[in-house]
Design goal:
This protein is mainly β. The chain has helices at 97-100, 297-305, and strands at 13-17, 22-27, 36-44, 47-52, 58-64, 67-68, 81-86, 105-110, 113-117, 126-135, 140-149, 155-166, 176-179, 195-197, 200-204, 212-216, 221-226, 229-234, 250-254, 260-266, 270-272, 277-288. The protein has a ten-stranded antiparallel sheet, with helices on one face. The chain has a six-stranded antiparallel sheet with strand order 1-2-3-4-5-6, with no helix packed on it. Strands 7, 12, 16, 19, 20 and 21 form a six-stranded antiparallel sheet that branches. Strand 8 and strand 9 (113-117) form a beta hairpin. 45% of the residues are buried.
Length: 306
């Protein structure tokens, strides 16, 4: 998660309605820098999720009644939500462009469903698919990722979702990140001030001169609360032996300074035969809360209920 290059600018997204459940938006520009059409917006109650197939099929925006949750930074690798393959040691840095930045092919687009597919990554011999749907009854955006072994040899791989939120420690609107794990089990120890409260490990956003990243064996969910909004992401709970080597079910990366934080989750490290497909689903819940963004049993209970 180092050696990031900084370019480009942010602009405002303007929308035109397609249906009550989904919209296509014409943009004058967006995080990452290029103008273009084709941004897709899904609606779930008062929440909206915006996806750009032309730029790595990233989730560029997640809002509740117009209030943004995701980082809108102008720098590369610092905004929205993306998807990589794990372990990182197989590609190091920068992210694999076919998965992270290049245009995905739109396989199908319906009022409440978008399916896209990446080019085949030359370095890895794999391709990525993403299916975005809305569970209106459950109040969730559902994102199902797939990794296909496009090569002629078996490959081991794990799915990895990376979601960036702003680090607002400098704005007087401090947020908290929490998940179900003992604070003393988080590794490497001492990099972030996690503490136990109400059955979860908590980290209050702060500012430091160094990049920091920690790993944890959680219980299938990861949450972030700031500005009276709670984001909960749910995924399969991994057994201790299931993550990729050197990786973990839950990871938190804090970029140096007043910038952004990554909420990361990974699926099982899986052996894929040639032509085989690994699928992994993350459910996103975004809701208003009256509870302050401080460690509390009430926030833990809300996260567990989703």
């Amino acid at each position: 998660m180092m050696n990031r290059r900084w370019t480009c600018l942010i602009t405002v997204i303007a929308a035109t309605a397609l249906t009550a459940a989904a919209q296509v938006i014409t943009t004058a520009g967006r995080p990452g820098g290029e103008a273009g059409d084709g941004l897709v917006v899904l609606n779930c109650g008062h929440a909206t999720m915006s996806i750009d197939p032309a730029r790595g099929a990233k989730i560029l925006s997640l809002k509740y009644q117009g209030r943004e949750v995701l980082s809108q930074s102008r720098w590369p690798e610092s905004f929205g939500s993306t998807f990589w393959t794990s372990p990182q040691k197989e590609w190091n840095w920068p992210p694999v462009p076919e998965f992270d930045k290049r245009a995905y092919t739109v396989v199908s687009r319906e009022p409440q469903r978008l399916e896209v597919k990446s080019p085949v990554a030359e370095r890895l011999g794999m391709s990525v698919g993403k299916v975005f749907t809305v569970d209106a009854d459950g109040g969730a955006f559902v994102v199902t990722y797939s990794i296909t072994n496009e090569g002629t040899e078996p490959r081991r791989v794990a799915p990895w979702e990376i979601t960036r939120v702003p680090n607002r420690a400098d704005e007087g609107r401090q947020g908290v990140i929490f998940f179900e794990a003992p604070a003393d089990s988080i590794w490497p120890a001492g990099l972030m001030a996690f503490r136990d409260h109400g059955g979860a490990a908590w980290y209050a956003t702060d500012e430091a001169a160094d990049n920091r990243k920690v790993n944890a064996d959680a219980k299938g969910w990861l949450a972030y609360c700031a500005d009276s909004l709670l984001l909960v992401k749910r995924f399969d709970d991994l057994k201790p032996a299931e993550p990729a080597p050197g990786e973990a079910e839950v990871q938190v990366y804090v970029n140096r300074g007043r910038s952004y934080i990554e909420l990361e989750s990974q699926g099982p490290y899986t052996l894929l035969a040639p032509g085989a497909v690994l699928r992994w689903t993350v459910r996103w819940y975004l809701m208003p809360v009256s509870t302050p963004a401080v460690p509390s049993p009430q926030l833990v209970e809300k996260a567990r209920q989703k």
